[in-house]
Design a protein that fits this description.
The complex is a heterodimer.
Chain A: H1 2-40, H2 48-73, H3 81-98, H4 100-123, H5 129-147, E1 153-154, H6 157-161, H7 165-185, H8 187-197, H9 199-204, H10 209-235, E2 237-238, H11 246-256, H12 269-288, H13 294-311
Chain B: H1 2-42, E1 54-57, E2 63-66, E3 69-75, H2 81-90, E4 98-104, H3 110-122, E5 127-130, H4 139-149, E6 152-155, H5 163-170, E7 175-181, H6 183-196, E8 201-206, H7 212-227, E9 231-237, H8 242-252, E10 258-261, H9 265-278, E11 286-290, H10 296-301, E12 307-310, H11 314-327, E13 338-341, E14 344-346, H12 349-358, H13 368-374, H14 381-389, H15 393-399
Helix pairs in contact in B: 2-11, 3-4, 6-7, 8-9
The chains are: A mainly alpha, B alpha/beta.
């Protein structure tokens, strides 16, 4: 009888581990990365100022990748998010010259509007989502280029002189709480995941697919607006290239964090957090450890492979090739 | 098992790369000692201290403490030859008893460059040295970071065209100055040279992002075209596919017989040469570029490329020297003026061989004594400017006594 109980317990632990493997493995990769850089930087990585640095550099990626979970869960991608960040920053910059208080809502509204247009093109015009988003990316890049005159536009001096770190932290926390609760504690998250598994089956079970696709793109749009506004405060200028790398970085962060690019049941907010941290710690740690110059890219690439290898250990049992 | 082996191999590769880095820095430190020992005997008993804290007596008898330093150097990349050369030149000052950390920023964006500077400051840099390649709007933020962290900053290959930004950096006690080349004149001379070779109808390829130095080159080239009564047929802005853009232009404007790229020889001139060939106009359309590339020797030899202005690698070297003098408390450029650096004009493969041998070869073109002498207390900014403007391959050869 006792042996049977032990077997059951063992089985439960195994299945729990199996279930969380996709989330635990990337966390393990992150921990190893932190330990590696803590040693090679002689402890600098763990200093308060370094942690603040990582936070300052990592928050735009965290914002966009958290929102990206909504779109990627459905099996879609938003290729316009990076361009949208830059565009929202430019709009906020222009509005700030009239009224600094209106800059933030302007950025959010602009981002949401772009997200809405993306979703409408996909849902009603039946344009494949990646084509619609790619086209939007080109449009936003061109618009941004025109608005900034091809160069860059400084924010009003009063925005540059004030320290917005508390405002940023508060906004970020509110954003994280809302986005996580909606995804994990309401039926929205489950329905988005269901769409990623099978759109037809989800519709059969009564899921309003059109509405959910619209919601997912509007969420990424709002996130782009938030990231754009906060990045504007951080760098003090709008430019055509601001935030442009965030599209690819968000996808990489999610994949590194253990989420499948096809969406579905592997979608989780923890993937965005882990992936964003891995990317930011890697970029920052490599300099703190003094690994500059020609070796930098080599080391970065190699470390990425290690982290991905650890993160994908979960798949080894199912893929025997 | 395979995965495990691959991870172990990668870890070994990383450790190897890290070890190479530290070996290199150890080697360079040993070289410094060697050089200093040499200097001891060369200067007929004049003492150059081997300790880390060196001093230099100025004309008033005050001592300048040459404390050890760490320079954080931010660059867009080291895979292109200009990025590689300026990074190499930036490290020449290591021979003066310090360290230069090169950080390759992740992309040409403002946010990437700000992050790069933050990381360098965080790594303990006393000085940050950068080019505002993501646009001059990045400068106020970096200025703020430098002041907040009490770190000196110097800009190379950079012109500040916005008076508000200039005022902002001038009021920063940690701002050292800028180095730059005569961009307008360079643009002008390029067109003059091509006109002498028979060019009449020009296409200019320019950056679209607000990089002031490129705008100045375009202004110079445009002025020369006006002055010489030539035609500026078309301006291409940051083509994603340069080859296609030039092909289209040549097909639509068959009268074009010169393509001037005001930046990135490798990025813009090489694809332009391919485009000229693909539309069957090889030998009819002249090309020129800025910044040296790895392929320019072969292109010059084949007659596909007429001239390149570049080799201004010392721009980072003189910027670092300027910053070091400020860090050591005896600034060579107290008024934060712009230091002008000459371009090298390359029109033949022999010029490139000499450049590779004497400027970016194994031995830096300036000895530690020459470096220290150029910023010594008895030198003025004008003297320093004169030394910088004397930079040429011939100058290096003559100083080496060859």
């Amino acid at each position: 009888m006792m042996v049977v109980n032990m077997d059951i317990k063992k089985g439960r632990i195994q299945s729990l581990f199996q279930y969380n493997k996709s989330k635990i493995a990337p966390l393990l990769g992150l921990v190893l990365l932190v330990v590696f850089f803590a040693i090679t930087s002689k402890g600098k990585l763990l200093e308060a100022s370094s942690i603040e640095n990582i936070y300052n550099q990592g928050f735009p990626l965290l914002i966009t990748s958290l929102a990206f979970v909504y779109v990627m869960a459905t099996g879609n991608l938003d290729f316009s998010i990076g361009a949208n960040v830059g565009f929202c920053a430019t709009i906020a910059c222009y509005v700030a010259f009239f009224n600094t208080k209106l800059a933030f809502p302007a950025a959010l509204l602009t981002g949401a509007l772009v997200g809405l247009i993306n979703s409408l093109m996909y849902v009603f015009l039946k344009i494949p989502s990646f084509i619609a988003c790619l086209c939007m990316m080109f449009i936003l890049t061109a618009a941004n280029q025109t608005l900034t005159g091809g160069g860059s536009k400084m924010v009003p001096v009063e925005l540059l002189q004030n320290d917005y770190s508390i405002v940023r932290l508060v906004l970020l926390l509110i954003y994280i709480i809302i986005i996580v609760i909606i995804f994990h504690k309401t039926k929205v998250g489950k329905q988005l995941e269901a769409l990623g598994i099978s759109v037809e089956a989800s519709i059969q079970t009564g899921v309003n697919a059109k509405l959910l696709f619209i919601v997912s793109y509007v969420v990424t749009g709002v996130a782009a607006g938030l990231a754009g506004y906060l990045m504007l405060l951080r760098v003090g200028a709008a430019s055509p290239t601001l935030g442009s790398s965030l599209t690819i970085d968000s996808i990489i962060a999610l994949v590194l964090g253990g989420m499948s690019i096809l969406g579905g049941a592997s979608s989780s907010m923890i993937c965005a957090v882990t992936g964003s941290l891995i990317t930011t710690v890697l970029n920052s740690g490599i300099v703190l450890a003094g690994m500059g110059g020609d070796a930098q890219q080599l080391i970065k690439g190699a470390l990425f492979i290690i982290v991905v290898s650890i993160s994908t250990l979960r798949e080894s049992s199912s893929k025997n090739f | 098992m395979k995965k495990l082996i691959s991870i172990i191999l990668i870890i070994m590769m990383i450790l190897g790369a890290v070890a190479c880095n530290s070996t290199k820095s150890n080697e360079s430190k040993e070289e410094v000692k060697e050089t200093e020992k040499k200097t001891d005997s060369d200067t007929d008993g004049e003492e150059v201290k081997e300790t880390e804290k060196k001093t230099d007596s100025d004309t008033d008898g005050e001592e300048v403490e040459r404390k050890p330093f760490k320079i954080g150097f931010s660059v867009w990349g080291t895979s292109d030859s200009h990025g590689r050369y300026v990074s190499q030149a930036a490290s020449w000052v290591e021979e003066l008893g310090g360290e230069v950390i090169v950080d390759v920023a992740q992309g040409f964006t403002i946010d990437a460059q700000v992050a790069s500077i933050e990381n360098l400051i965080q790594s303990g840099a006393d000085i940050v040295s950068f080019c505002a390649y993501s646009g001059e709007a990045v400068i106020p933020k970096i200025s703020e970071l430098a002041e907040k962290n009490e770190v000196y900053f110097v800009m190379w290959d950079t012109t500040v065209s916005d008076p508000a930004i200039q005022e902002m950096v001038d009021s920063n006690p940690y701002f050292v100055g800028t180095t730059n080349e005569g961009q307008f004149e360079a643009g002008y001379e390029t067109v003059e040279y091509l006109a002498e070779q028979g060019a009449t109808d020009f296409v200019i390829i320019k950056y679209a992002i607000g990089v002031a130095i490129c705008d100045e080159r375009v202004d110079g080239a445009s002025k020369a075209i006006d002055d010489l009564g030539l035609n500026l047929t078309y301006v291409i802005e940051v083509p994603e596919d340069t080859k296609k853009a030039v092909e289209d232009t040549l097909v639509n404007y068959p009268e074009v017989n010169a393509v001037v790229a005001v930046g990135g020889t490798a990025m813009y001139v090489t694809p332009s040469i391919q485009a000229i060939e693909s539309v069957g106009r090889k030998g009819e359309v002249l090309t020129s570029g800025f910044d040296f590339s790895d392929t320019m020797g072969a292109e010059l030899e084949a007659g596909d490329l007429s001239l390149v202005l570049g080799g201004h690698v010392v721009t980072t070297h003189f910027a670092n020297l300027m910053a070091l003098s400020a860090y050591w408390g005896d600034p060579i450029n107290p008024d934060k003026e712009q230091l002008m650096i000459p371009y090298l004009t390359v029109t033949s493969p022999e010029d490139i061989d000499n450049f590779n041998k004497y400027v970016v070869g194994d031995v830096p073109p300036y000895t530690p004594e020459e470096m220290l002498d150029s910023i010594s207390s008895d030198k003025t900014f004008d003297d320093f400017q004169k030394i910088a403007m004397e930079y040429s391959i011939e100058d290096v050869i003559s100083r080496r006594g060859e």
